[in-house]
Amino acid sequence: MNKTISFAKDPVDALLRDGLKNLWHPICPSDFIGERPVSLRRLGKKIALWRDAAGTLHALEDHCPHRGAPLSQGMVLGDRLACPYHGVEVRCDGTVTKVPGSPGCKLEGARAALAFHVQEAYGAVFLYNSDTNVDTPPPMTLPEELSSPEYSHFLCYAEWKGDYRYAIDNVMDPMHGTFLHKQSHSMAEGDSTATFQIRDTDSGFVFEKVGQRGVNFDWTEWGDTGVHWMRLEIPYPKTGGPGGNFAIIACATPINEGLCSVFFWRCRKVSAWQRDTWRFLYRNRLEARHWAVLEQDRVMLEQMEPDANQNEHLYQHDIGLVRLRRHLRKLATEQLEAATVPA
After folding, report:
1. Beta carbons of 224 and 252 less than 8 angstroms apart
2. 3-class secondary structure, 281
């Protein structure tokens, strides 16, 4: 008798579904966290985030090491959270500093909670995803369109129903712009047929149309610089204002199996008066158009079945997806193998 193996039980897929470990991931816009602690589900975990009096951001697993109560419901005491259930105080590095009901018990002084390194950059909160407490995480770097002062950018954030990997597939598929977004003010040009090639870079690879550049959504770059990101460019007509081509830096992070968070930074290379002109033009004319394009993507992806990628018939336009999927599975396999090696 044939035995059916569920894809969901594949340990590599399970790891990818929740998000790769030992990697920086964007988890929310910075303004999600105000004066009160916030609880977010991301990367297969429930995370408590809060700010101290100086505004510095901290993160712990939203799970008191005493009895599992949500720390996010507690009181902020600077770099500590006091659990609302029994008052246990947990410092941002995961150390229990006080047990009011039983002073001097063995829980005091123990690094019993899972702590996360977080940093704010480019309007977003980035979290280093680890299953153990890490004293010093590796650095992360994002492309120059975000890190260079020569560029101006806006963050578009949304939450889409579905696996975050479909959102990644969507960005890594330049050809869908020719069809799904053909009515867009910026994606109506170029050939409706194309041959693609892959070009390696120092941090990943570029998946691009052969013989067409600067016409439409002609290429996507995948990069791994301590954080996984994608980069693309959309040519703009003169009516789109100063700054040359319009660049997009994109990331996607799992919330749970049926929901993901997507980040799209819209960037242009502008300075002096051109920066002010571009920012005014974006807010007043272009932002609504960009959201309309994202809405087309959202509707398409949310209507796909969860197992759609198990019933595919791929062709030449999909070699970039195949390359990336194999790469991610390789990273997940390596992490699983490392986790089983005796210390």
Report:
1. no
2. helix
Around Cβ 182, how many Cβ atoms within 10 Å? 13
Residue with tokens 């500590």: 80
Domain boundaries defined on the chain? 31-129, 144-329
Q: Cα separation of 305 and 308, whole Å?
A: 5
Q: Label residue 225 by pLDDT band (50, 70, 90).
A: very high
CA distances from 201 to 135, 139, 145, 148 (A): 31, 19, 17, 20
Left (φ > 0), alpha (ψ -120 to 50) or beta: where does 312 sit? Answer: beta
Q: 282 is written with which tokens?
A: 């974006």
| Three-state secondary structure call for residue 85 | coil
Task: Give the H/E segment covering residue 223.
Answer: strand 219-224
Cβ 117 vs Cβ 129: under 8 Å: no
Evaluate if residue 6 carries a pLDDT over 50: no
Hey, which residues does 82 pair with through a beta bridge?
75, 89
| Per-residue pLDDT tens over the stretch 118-167 | 999 999 999 999 999 999 999 999 999 999 999 999 999 999 999 999 99
Residue 64 near residue 71, CB atoms below 8 Å: yes
Q: Which fold, 31-129?
A: Rieske Iron-sulfur Protein (2.102.10)
Identify the three-state secondary structure at position 60: strand
Q: What's phi and psi for 48, nearest 5 deg?
A: -100, 125
Contact 152, 275 (CB under 8 A): yes
Token readout for 244 is 């040359």
pLDDT band at 339 (very low <50, low <70, confident <90, very high): confident
CB 58 within 8 A of CB 82: no
Architecture (CATH level 2) of domain 144-329 = Alpha-Beta Complex (3.90)
- As given in the structure block, the two tokens for residue 21 are 């470990």
Residues 6+ apart with CB under 8 A from 258: 161, 162, 163, 306
User: CA-to-CA distance for 83 and 86, rounded, in angstroms?
Assistant: 6
